[in-house]
Amino acid sequence: MADVSESAVGEARRSETPGATGAGPAVGAAGAPLLALLNVEVLYAEVILALKGVSLQVAPGGCVALLGANGAGKSTTLKAISGVIESDDGRVSGGSIAFRGLPIHGHETASVVRGGLVHVMEGRRVLPHMTVEQNLIIGGHMFPRAAQMRRALDGVYHAIPRLADLRTRTAGYLSGGEQQMLVIGRAIMAEPKLMLIDEPSLGLAPRMIEEVFAVLHRLRAQGLALLIVEQNTRVALEIADYGYVMEGGRIVLEGRADELRANEDVREFYLGLDREGGRKSFREVKHYRRRKRWLG
């Protein structure tokens, strides 16, 4: 099979999609994306250039999947957006990040959250010795009145009914899937407009993955925009409108979710399928990855 050159990648980006010529997913009648990154670069320890000119958009109420192998720069992208990159001895060294039309690079993380952007980090970081409801209350700590807190809790229990059944359970004794639902619920206590969520299916059984993504589907239906980092390409492209593929700190491919599902390279590298839809062995997939076809 012939290698895919940079010109071929560029042609894929120029195809007739809402994100043609790198503009990203459709941004609605107002024409303004909810989140926009333009040529973002990130340095770790003033030495390692982890992101190399990343540009992407998320539309209001939309869902974007950020795909790629380990080390591609996906989690770094989310940390750069939310502002927690500095806790990892990193910094945004170039480009711009705008949320709701306003620059957020360099702002305090707490002010970014108050503005409507929340980040669910990888690893199901619950407070293990507290109950489910106590974890949720911490997520809504900015509410000045108890009535507002109660309304937010009721909203979480409506969106994720399992948490209502578990409200008195100690968080450390929940299953992995239940803990993932809890950190999602804690994030929506802040009543966000956009949720960044990192590897929601990591380490979960297939049944729990379905339940977690069912929760994300419900949140989408309520108008919450999502930017999902996920190695499970199949489930990510089922929920997303649009997707970006990262390799080596760069966006190497983008397009509508249905186009990415049909893309021969995505099917081979991330879905493990050949041209006819048959399964490829892991050894074959790794061999093709080593060729770095997208980067020429």
Structural Rg: 19 Å
Total of DSSP H or I helical runs spanning 4+ residues: 12
Amount of helix: 25-40%
Straight-line distance between termini: 14 Å
Task: Provide the spatial order of strands within the biggest beta sheet.
Answer: 6-7-8-3-9-10
Biggest sheet details: 6 strands, mixed
Structural class: alpha/beta
Name the quaternary structure. single chain
SSE run: HEEEHEEHEHHHHEHEHEEHHH
Question: Which spans have pLDDT < 50 for at least 5 consecutive residues?
Answer: 1-22, 285-292
Strand content: 15-25%
Shape: globular
Total number of strands:
10
Mean pLDDT: 82
Verbal overview:
The chain is of the alpha/beta class and 296 residues long. Helix content is 36%, strand content 22%. It has helices at 6-13, 74-82, 109-114, 132-139, 146-159, 161-165, 176-188, 206-221, 233-239, 257-262, 264-269, 282-290, and strands spanning 35-44, 48-58, 63-68, 90-99, 102-103, 117-120, 194-198, 225-229, 242-247, 250-256. The chain has a six-stranded mixed beta sheet, with helices on both faces. A four-stranded antiparallel beta sheet has the order 2-1-4-5, with helices on one face. A hairpin with a 2-residue loop joins β4 and β5 (102-103). α4 (132-139) packs parallel to α7 and α7 (176-188) runs parallel beside α8. The longest helix has 16 residues, at 206-221. The chain is globular and about 45 Å long. The two termini are 14 Å apart.
